[in-house]
Amino acid sequence: MKATRALPALALGFMTALALAAPVARAQAPAAGAASAQSGEAVKDALGRDTPRGTVIGFMTAARRANFEAAVLYLNVTREEGASELAHQLYVVLDTRLPARLNQVSDRPEGSLTNLLKPDQDIVGAIDTNEGSLDIVVERLNRGASGSVWLFSRRTLDAIPRAYEEIHRVSIDEWLPRFLTRPRIGGIRFFEWLAFFLAIPVFYRAMGLFGLLVGPLVNVWRRRRGLPPHEWKSLPGPVRLLLLAVSIRWALASLDLPLFERQFWFLTARVSFTIGIVWLGLLANEIGERYLQRRHQGSTVGDTTAMLRLGRRVADVLVIMVGVLLVLNYFGIDPTAALAGLGIGGIAVALSAQKTLENVIGGLSIIFDKAVRVGDTLKVGDTVGTVEYIGLRSTRIRTADRTMVSVPNGQIANVNIETLSARDKFRFNHFVCLGYQTSAAQMRTIVDGIRDLLLRQPLVDDSSIRARFIRIGPFSIDVEIFAYVFGRDWLHFLEIQEQLLLEIMEIVEKAGATMAFPTQTLHLSDPEGRGIGPDRIRALRSASLDASHLPVEPA
Questions:
Q1: Per the confidence metrics, is the pTM higher than 0.70?
Q2: 477 vs 480: CA distance, rounded Å
Q3: What radius of gyration do the chain's Cα atoms show?
């Protein structure tokens, strides 16, 4: 929320920096165009006519300074007579009618190449006249040793006088004092800088009160529709920036401003609009994160919070990157090289952080597959414990010894996990070992009693009950008891199991049988019928000792 509240200042600061950079970019455009063409041609034009954009900006700069002798050099004319007047008329037409999209004019020596049938011609814009739309075309001419240059085409120059007669120019300078219109900073008049630094912030703050004024009217409409009233606050920041961009575009259509100044305000409006859209995207990411947290509240909110925050940060970065790319495109900067560099850098980072990414992706798979949740009792390999936290890199498990084990998410995603707490039933499986003194009647009574006991228990699954006399063992005769028990958790199951075992012991006791324990009885044979008493045992023992000392005769 703090970052969201700080966005108005950041947005206006970012917009200010970009708008301040617009005159600089405009002034350096011919030089940039010449630099971009340096690798392709040996001879460079001193007037910056190597590119279509350099020709337009160089001509407008020379004409604005009333240097029409230099401005004529940008025209494809053969007669010197009237050339200065034609340059003046072209300047007026372009300064008032040419769309403020100089950043979209090609800055390459070969032009935009949009029309392959006429590769040496480039349209820099279109103006509206009474006779229809007039394309402003520059054409590339070869001047021999001087190289190729871009000049305003003859066809365009022939139509300029008629377009000039339609223009009734009313300058805003007539309504403002000279100290506001004469000084120029970066080619922009002083009063426009005041409007930029003073009027725009005031307008931005004032639009915040618009929501307070409209709120009561909206609540009246909501009451008539049977809806509860809504507490209205000031307009959100992104909505204000969008309204600001719309207001600037409306003002540009209503006021008569020079081309460079229209270009300045056009870029300001575009940057404001882009920042508003980016801001709306960030707010949408925040709202989406809150919605998902509320949806998972009570079950997996502990382990999804980190993942949702990571997803929101990634989405925020993507939204901001798209906004930056759009702004760079407005200024005519090709971001292809930067994107290629980011791609190569991303591959290098992915390779160097392979294990970390593996754990992060493993954590995402765990969360969205819901294989592990906070509070589950797990058995991962030899580790048994309760999950206390699922992070981006590892999962922390509290063992029965109250120690904390951190297991990497990548390892959890690749091994078999036994979720003990996810059991819907608990297995009740025991053996009742009875002594050999138990009769067949007693055995039938015990087996039937155990079966009836399990059938009466409401928390025992009736379809799984099994009580059978299964074997005659070496020490006992055994009865197997098997059933599934419904329990809330392990402790509840132990409570039910204890009660069942006690009642089974009572059934055995009531039947008159006893539980067996491992015993052995040694029987000695006495074929002569003589009793084996203490004297006989001592005699046999002494006889065996004497026989052990007799010599052994060879075979």
A1: no
A2: 10
A3: 46
